[in-house]
Amino acid sequence: MIKQAIIPLAGLGTRLLPLTSVFAKELLPINGKPGIEYILDECVQAGIKEIIFIISDKKKMIKDYFYNDRFYKKIIKKKKDKRILEEYRKILKYKKMIKFVYQNKPLGTGDAVLKTKRFIKDKFFLMLLPDDLIIKKNCSKSMMAIHKKHNSSVMASMIVNKKDVSRWGIYKLSKKISKNDFIIKDVVEKPSIKNSPSNRAVIGRYILPRKIFSKLLKLKPGKGGEIHITDAIQSLIKEKEKFIAHNFLGKYLDCGSMNGYIKSSLEISKLWNYAW
Ligand code: UTP
Fold first, then answer.
1. Positions of E strands within 39-92
2. Whose C-alpha lies nearest to ligand 1, atom 23?
3. Is the Cβ atom of 108 under 6 angstroms away from ligand 1?
4. In degrees rounded to 5, what are phi and psi of residue 135?
5. Rounded Cα–Cα distance for residues 30 and 267 (Å)
6. Residue 136 has pLDDT above 90, yes or no
7. How high is the pLDDT of residue 72?
8. pLDDT at position 274, please?
9. How many A from CA of 9 to the centre of ligand 1?
10. What percentage of residues in the chain have a pLDDT greater than 90?
11. Minimum-distance ligand 1 atom for the alpha carbon of 131
12. 18-74 pLDDT, tens per residue?
């Protein structure tokens, strides 16, 4: 049973400038609710008990969002507003589950993951990239069921347009194990169209083995001079670690780009009575 999740939040969010010049993109509202809360709800509903946030000094406002007790207590006392009380209770519930670690230099997702090494207790843990929202079906929960069945690593995946492969980690499949699940043979970070092994992309949900930390410790910077989690995964796959790609059934919303961010609010507002 996977109990811990990690969420890298220490990136600069340059694609959402100017919004991110003073604001953490993960707190930007998506249909009136901070994006990070959708991710937290996905974790809670999947049965995760502890969540590790990787933030930076520049993104301290993410921690402040969960540690604003004095302000809430004062307002609640003064206003006696039931809605505010409920919102505060929700934040308290999240706060109990969250630990914070710091990555003050954004050297890449792999480096961000490495910062959580001393907190990960079990053989496997979940990682969620908060720019990737998946709605209508809880992707983490489905992946945890696959992990339980195969006792292996799992990554969320979807077919992307061939001309867009250089935006993603792209994998080559070795065999199909069920309608939506495949054993991965290789994975490459942001390949060129010419060198791409397929148009099957890895999306921001990963069940990773703790042994990935020993790979990350030795990893050299890759594409764009960053330390990528994909490169550590590639090296584990080369050593015959089993990774399953799961074509998730929910709807993918890319909140990391301006177009995608705007669209995600519209999509969620269309859902009547939004729930998994
Ligand atoms: P991205 O590279 O896609 O997003 O990282 P970014 O860096 O935040 O934004 P852009 O590309 O400049 O617009 C994917 C996730 O990994 C985190 C980011 O916060 C994001 O959630 N990340 C990235 C880190 O925590 N540390 C890093 O060094 C890099």
1. 50-55
2. 11
3. yes
4. -110, 170
5. 10
6. yes
7. 96
8. 55
9. 7
10. 96
11. 21
12. 999 999 999 999 999 999 999 999 999 999 999 999 999 999 999 999 999 999 999
